[in-house]
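Thread: Modeling a multi-component assembly for a lab meeting

Hi all, long-time lurker, first post. My supervisor asked me to bring a structural picture of a complex we are working on to next week's group meeting, and I have zero experience with this. I have the sequence lines for every component (897 residues in total). Could someone generate the structure of the whole assembly? Inputs are pasted exactly as I received them:
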Amino acid sequence: MSRRLIYTCAPSIIWVRDADQMLLVDQETKQSWSLRGVSAVIWDLLAVGYSHQRIVPLLSLIISLPIEEVEQSFTKVLEKWLDEGIVQASREAKDGELDHQCGM
Amino acid sequence: MSVPRESETNIFAIPILDKFLLYAPLHNLAALLDQTATRLLRDSLLSGETVAEECLGEISLALNEDAEPTPSPIQGDFVPSFLGLLPTRGCNLACRYCGFLTAEESARVMSLEMAQNAVNWYMDELELAGVSHAEVHYFGGEPFCAEQVLDLTVHLARIRAEEIGCSLRFEVATNGVFDEERCHWAADNIDTIVLSLDGPADIHDFHRPCKDGQGSYKTVEHNARILSQGSADLFLRACVTSQTVGRMPEIATWFCEGFHPKGVCFEPLQPSTQSRIGQLEPPDPWDFARNFVKAAWILESYGVEPVYAAGDIHARQVSFCPVGKDAAIVSPDGTISACYLLRRDWEAKGLDLRLGRLEDGSVQLRADAVDSARSLNVHNKPSCAHCFCKWHCAGGCHVNHTLPDPPDIYDRLCIQTRIIGLRNVLKEMGQDYLVPEWLQDREAVERSVYQASDLLLDLGEIQ
Amino acid sequence: MANLTISAVCNQHCSYCFTRDHLNGSRASRNFLDVADFDARLDFLDRSNIDQARLLGGEPTLHPQFPELVERARARSKKITVFTNGLMPEEALACLEKLSPTECNVLVNVNEPVEAGEATYERQLAAIHRLGKRASLGFNIYRVDFQPDFLLSLIGEAGCRPAIRLGLAHPCLSGDNQYIHPNQYVAIGQKIVSFARLAARAGVIVEFDCGFVRCMFSDEDLETLEAIGAGVGWRCNPILDVDIDGQVIHCYPLSGLGSLPLTPETDAPALRKAFESLTRSYRQAGVFQECSTCPFKRSGVCFGGCLAATIRRFRHTPFSLVIPHQEMES
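Re: Modeling a multi-component assembly
Sure thing. I ran the full set together rather than chain by chain. Output:
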């Protein structure tokens, strides 16, 4: 069965853009992360609602890397964020049923 | 002691009530003189003899000191002063005074590859020239109708600027009609936002409806509040018509109380076919100038900068706009121009402001086109030679403002610019208190404004 | 330092009041602190080695047993500081009059007469006059077109301490009060310097509350302020506001961030440390984007402005990213 993977921003994550970083704070644990470079760009694009389909080609133009490489980097970033609790992931069956999952 | 001859063309005397305002911008000098003192100073310039009177002697001394160099057109290699990007001419509004575009013109959007190439070319040029500051300005249409172009170029420009070690600023002129997340994005990522907001709902919705005829005020007002809380320098730009000119002070107060912007630009309506169809007329220049000054007092009390670009007496320039300043403005089709207005508008004035093309990743600029753009400067505008505004207004927009040569009359732009410019000089001198009396006296203002030559040496008989 | 809230009631409704979030959201069972609970607060001050009893509200002097509370604090050799609007009942005013200027400081917060109204202003003037050198003036800047010059004539007329404490109206986390946005700080800084010069000529010292930032003043302005004795700091620390129910908050603007209970074991240093730990993540930012790269912030000279204003910059974005189908075992 094919399933879509859906990443969502963890509900307790708030963030702010600073001159040299995206600063993320988990309001519950008070943990913080400083995103810079490509990670910061990814976060910025996600925040304005980019889909996977649009984000990867755009990233490829921004950082001047082939799409395949960008796809891999992008996936790694998401997985890292998932591990750290910045995002949450769930799998959705094609019939729309959600199957929550916290780790990969 | 005599004043160097070149300076004589930069020493002005303008009547203000029963006095003369002596103004020498390149000497950073301004003084209010009575008629006797003005005559003595003029005579001393003519004769080359020193002025005996004590305080006039000080003024003479100041006029003899080295002045700032006369502003000159750029020479030498073309180094883009800023990168202008026109992501699209398309727009999501149908403003009553906006120039008419064909469907084809408004549909075209800059390709992402074109945008990438434009940024890379610009940064390469800066690196070659050893320039340490980059600026990217977005024009339209409505730039946010091509969001991907903005997202790409903002991030790419940041990466390239860091690579070459230069600082970077972004500026956008926008109608403010976008969703909330995009609004936050703009507040976070753009350094200067010029937001068109013509006034409260009754004005704004009439002037600037959406394409479906509905008002845009609610969205723009909401977004203006978000932008005002963000990091960007927010400038509110209000188009003023004959119907709204009397409300400028009210609008200024409303702007300050509601949005605490960094600055407010009041711009008189530029007549167009659309504005005539929409029965909108530009304001009477006298009314505009008077109300601008009243609005300025209000804005300044809130620490907000009143902006009327042609009246900015701190400017020292030979051209009012990007034209002639080596700006590189890239259109969706890859044309690089000196101006962001519609090409057919330049052509209607017999101008060709194209500089070259960006194609397949490389840029071809025509040297003759660059020279031609640079020649559009106030040195080549005889109408402006004797006006005290010449290094500030520099003759205004090359496309929208042309004076007959020689000028028999000052047009509306000249009238309002001269009034506002004079007020700004008086304010800078700490003499703002004179302005209410002066502005109330129409004859006195006309004497100031209609003086054919402001040069001190051209002053006729002084009583 | 810690502020003790003894009254949840106020007889004014200042648009900038930063207790708004807390008092509106409070589930306090009473308007005034019990005497017994006040004694517990004094115990807290004792074990924290704090020799000041700083009384806060609402309007603290409206407490029906205000004189008794002051007496109890004085019995423990506490210097009394009262944060008041000056519109106090006769009993409260009389009890403060009995104290010497070294025993108490009454910080009277005044608004511009045109905002306060003539009757209110006259009452405040009368109270300040009676308090004399026990009183000093506080002024909250909540509009960029503020006009503080009236404070100088007020000092002259009322004979109070020649000192004015300037405060910036900071936002509650909800933003429901009127406050100065950091974008207005530079314009306000210029006006403050002009006023401080004027005040110095009148022999009045200008003091600064929390949340000012280094970049709101030019180097030249800072030299001027120093030269006239108006030393300004760039601090934002846990104040420790203790509410009526015995909950301790970082400060009233940040009441939405949570509270810690005041127990017989807790002392101020431990509470301060706990709040510093709670807010450390947010303090990496400041009120401006540039705070994160500012050398003054990095070196600790400037704290980056009011933490409530800083936290208001943060937002949650509920984005959702769908990755196209991946073949998996079902």
